[in-house]
Structures are given as C-alpha cells and as structure tokens.
C-alpha cells in the first residue's frame, strides 16, 4: 500500500514519494497532479521561479517551526533535565531564527544550559508534509537512541551521550513532542573547514580508527538497531524502504541474515514503487530496466563474498556529521538516525565526502586522491579487508544511488548506472553506451508485464 494518497479531491492515485510532498501548498500529490498545469507552486530548479520558491519556503519553515515550538512544554523539559542531572538548568526563550537556530532537514534542537556550564540539546523531530507516519518517527527515535548507546558503550568513537528519550505519543511523555536529550559537543562540521595537507592526513588517520572500531563489533543481521536496552537489530528504517499494509500499519523490510536477501528485497520493493507511480515517475521505464537488470544479472556477483558478519554504517556521511576542533581532532560523530548494519563492502566503502563528486556523477570510477590515501592508511594499520573495501567501494556507492536513488535529477541515472556496470565488470554482453544498453533491455524485457504496463502509461 501507498504511504500517502494524493490530496486532490477525488484522486485515487498514490502520492509520489519525496518530490510529491510539497511544503509550500502542504499537499501530497500524485504524478499527474504534480505536473505544472495543475501544481503551480514555484520550482527551485527553474531560475525564474527560484526567488519566489525560497521566499515561500522560508515562510513555510517559520510557520512549521513555530507550530512545533508551541507544542513543547518548556517547564516539563527543564524539570526533566534537572531531575536527570541533578543540576539546575535554564532553557533560553525558544524562538526560531534561521541564522541561529540549530536545525537540520529532519530535526530541531533546543539548548538546555546547566549552571555549571554543561549544555545538552533536546533533539526533536520536525513535522511537515514530508514527514513519514508517526509510527515510523517513533521507530527512528528509538533506533537513534539505541545506536548512540551502542557506540558510546561498546566503541571508542566519540559520540554525544544520550541522557533520555521519549516517543511522540507516549502517555508518560510530558514534554509534548518526541525527543532525545544528548550532550552538545563543541566542534564545527568538517565539511565547513578548509584542510591543509597535514590536516587531511590527521583526519583520515582518525577516520581509519573509527572504521577499525566499527569492524571490531560485527552483527549477525542487516537492519537498524531497534532498542537501547537490548541493542537488537530490527527492520531497515530508511525512508524509501518503508510501506504500509491494507490497514495502514507500517510494513518494513528486514532484518535480514543474508546479504543476497537484503539486496533482492530492497530492489523488489523499489520495482513495486516504480510500478505504483510512487518513485522515478519522470524516468519510470529507465529506472524499471535498471532495477530489473541489477536484480537479474548483478546482485549475485556483488553479494557472494558478503556473508555472515555485518557492520554498523553511518548512512548520511557527507562530512557535516563529523565535528572537529581547531586542531582537526574529531570531537564527535553525530546524526546517526538512519544508521544501519550492512555488508562489509557497503559499511566500509569510503564516506561520500571523500569522493570527487564531479568525476563520480560523470560516470568515472576512478578513486579520488582522498580515497586512495584513506585506503593506504588502512593498509598501513594492517587492515587489508578495510583497505580493499575502500578501493572496491564504487560498487556500493553506485548501488546506493541506482537502487531507490530517485533524486531531483533524473538525468543522472544513465551515468550512475553505466558506472555500476563498469565497476561490476559484467562482461556479457558488452555495452558501450547507455543507449545501446537501453535498446538491448527493451528487447530483452519486451514480454515483461511490468515493462508493458509502464510503456502503456507513458
Ligand atoms: Zn505545492
Ligand atoms: Zn492526484
């Protein structure tokens, strides 16, 4: 079943995932009602509409955050923090200011200042038309708390300590919103800093130690940590992997004890979303062929060496999740809310911020200078399997962007996929170009019911 139906009166089609949730008109829209002749909201990608888009987007954010803040029982939050730490604290007046407020795409942070100088953050989930169902939000809170608990109790990786958490609709939660209370760490995001030669080596060396620490704690299943108490593995919570059943209850993928089953289930789920008109609506035929081809031809080769042991991976490793001090010491790794366990090859492919983005999106699989250096450091530390996960990491990167990677730019799929083909060295038959591959697949899957349906609808 679909996550959300189209909000237009009388329309029975499912809303398109992500792109179909418009924060400006606060509606879920299907692929038909997203077309510009019906949906008139400005588009950030159209130059003439950019200014109006950002103006309305700013206004929508202010309205959303003010509504969120009004639900927070500040007295209850202060009492809770004081009871836990047994030190008086102050919560400065909560007022949204886009320049000063600590906010990401998913979470808003309220500072709690203790009189002895310690600061905690109350991390609360933003709520707007792009939000997933409440049951999923609650699972994310529990999983993030569990992940922080695992990292702080079992590894030496610097992370903020979790002092408390509560679910959005828990009767015992007097704060009014779901939240996690964590330490505020001093440091600035690595992605905001300019690194010299020695600084880069110093950061890569510390990053290698983080990889080594994660490798020392294997899990027997693929999924997300689900409970801070038991540290057991539950289903995958990644947004594009969720669904609902006929009654509207969440339906999730996993946990899996086989890499092959994990990959196959993820691809089959994406194929369903494509056929239902919920993802890749602008390039459905191309995306369908890509997912079918990966499922039928590549996935066995990719997963054959990835059995038995799985490792925790930060799934949003763009560089702003690493906090550094002035000497480029890593003081914290934050934002673990989508973290999951996965195969060695995926868990230890290079973090995305080490890639040369231009080369990568152009289809090249050449390792960046930073990736090569990182692999060398791991090898010097005697970690050959981690070093080869980095040097072979392009397969994991490209799989992540080809399967369920419906982005703002549908034109990127051909280069991403041809990069995957090159990385996996599928030799039979040889394809020189996307057009040649696509032509061949249209012929190969000519009798496939799914493909026929998409061609009819196009
Ligand atoms: Zn709109
Ligand atoms: Zn519709």
Written account of the structure:
39% of the residues lie in helices and 12% in strands. With 458 residues, the chain is α+β, with helices and mostly antiparallel strands. The chain has 3 domains: 1-38, no CATH class; 42-184, 2-Layer Sandwich (Phosphorylase Kinase, domain 1), CATH 3.30.200; 191-457, Aminoglycoside 3'-phosphotransferase, Chain: A, domain 2, CATH 3.90.1200. A hairpin with a 4-residue loop joins strand 1 and strand 2. Helix 5 runs antiparallel to helix 6 (284-303) and helix 6 runs parallel beside helix 12. The radius of gyration is 23 Å and the shape is globular. The two termini are 22 Å apart. The mean pLDDT is 93. The structure holds zinc ion (2 copies).
The second-level CATH architecture of the largest domain is: Alpha-Beta Complex
What share of the residues lie within helices?
25-40%
Q: What top-tier CATH class of the largest domain fits best? A: Alpha Beta
CATH topology of the largest domain: Aminoglycoside 3'-phosphotransferase, Chain: A, domain 2
Describe how the helices and strands are arranged.
Blueprint: E1 21-22, E2 27-28, H1 50-70, H2 74-85, E3 89-90, E4 102-103, E5 107-114, E6 119-125, H3 134-154, E7 162-166, E8 179-183, E9 188-189, H4 197-215, E10 224-225, E11 233-234, E12 243-244, E13 250-251, H5 259-275, H6 284-303, E14 311-313, E15 322-324, E16 330-333, E17 340-342, H7 344-347, H8 357-361, H9 369-380, H10 384-391, H11 394-402, H12 413-424, H13 434-444, H14 449-457
Antiparallel strand pairs: 1-2, 3-5, 4-5, 5-6, 6-8, 7-8, 9-15, 10-11, 12-13, 14-17, 15-16
Helix pairs in contact: 4-9, 5-6, 6-12, 6-14, 9-10, 11-12
Bound molecules: zinc ion (2 copies).
One zinc ion binds at residues 6, 8, 11, 13, 29-30, 32-33.
């Amino acid at each position: 079943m679909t996550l959300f139906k189209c909000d237009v009166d009388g329309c029975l089609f499912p809303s398109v995932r992500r792109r179909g949730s418009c924060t400006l008109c606060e509606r879920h829209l299907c692929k038909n009602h997203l077309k510009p002749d019906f949906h008139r909201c400005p588009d950030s990608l159209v130059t003439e509409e950019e200014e109006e888009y950002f103006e309305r987007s700013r206004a929508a954010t202010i309205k959303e955050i003010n509504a969120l803040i009004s639900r927070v029982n500040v007295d209850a939050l202060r009492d809770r923090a004081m009871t836990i730490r047994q030190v008086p604290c102050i919560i400065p007046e909560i007022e949204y200011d886009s320049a000063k407020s600590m906010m990401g795409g998913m979470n808003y942070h309220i500072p709690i200042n203790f009189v002895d100088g310690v600061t905690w953050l109350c991390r609360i989930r933003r709520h707007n038309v792009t939000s997933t169902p409440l049951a999923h939000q609650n699972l994310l809170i529990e999983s993030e708390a569990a992940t922080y608990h695992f990292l702080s109790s079992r590894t030496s990786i610097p992370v903020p300590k979790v002092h408390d958490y509560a679910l959005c609709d828990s009767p015992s939660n007097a704060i009014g919103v779901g939240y996690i209370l964590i330490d505020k760490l001093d440091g600035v995001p690595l992605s905001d800093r300019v690194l010299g030669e020695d600084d880069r080596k110093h950061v890569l060396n510390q990053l290698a130690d983080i990889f080594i620490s994660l490798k020392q704690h294997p899990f027997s299943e693929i999924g997300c940590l689900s409970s801070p108490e038991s540290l057991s593995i539950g289903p995958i919570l990644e947004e594009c992997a969720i669904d609902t059943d006929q009654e509207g209850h969440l339906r999730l993928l996993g946990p899996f004890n086989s890499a092959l089953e994990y990959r196959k289930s993820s691809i089959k789920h994406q194929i369903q979303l494509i056929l239902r008109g919920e993802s890749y609506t602008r390039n459905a035929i191309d995306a369908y062929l890509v997912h079918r081809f990966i499922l039928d031809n590549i996935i066995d080769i990719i997963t054959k060496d990835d059995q038995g042991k799985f490792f925790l991976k930060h799934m949003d490793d763009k560089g702003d999740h690493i906090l550094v001090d002035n000497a480029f010491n890593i003081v914290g790794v934050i934002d673990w809310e989508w973290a999951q366990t996965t195969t060695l090859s995926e868990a230890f492919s290079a973090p995305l911020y080490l890639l040369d983005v231009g080369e990568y999106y152009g289809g090249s699989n050449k390792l960046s200078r930073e990736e090569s250096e990182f692999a060398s450091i791991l090898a010097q530390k005697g970690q050959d399997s981690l070093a080869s996960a980095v040097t072979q990491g392009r397969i994991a990167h490209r799989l992540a962007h080809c399967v369920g990677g419906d982005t703002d730019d549908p034109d990127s799929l051909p280069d991403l996929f041809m990069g995957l083909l090159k990385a996996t060295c599928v030799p039979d038959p040889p394809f020189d170009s996307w057009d040649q591959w696509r032509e061949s697949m249209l012929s190969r899957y000519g009798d496939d019911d799914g493909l026929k349906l998409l061609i009819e609808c196009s």
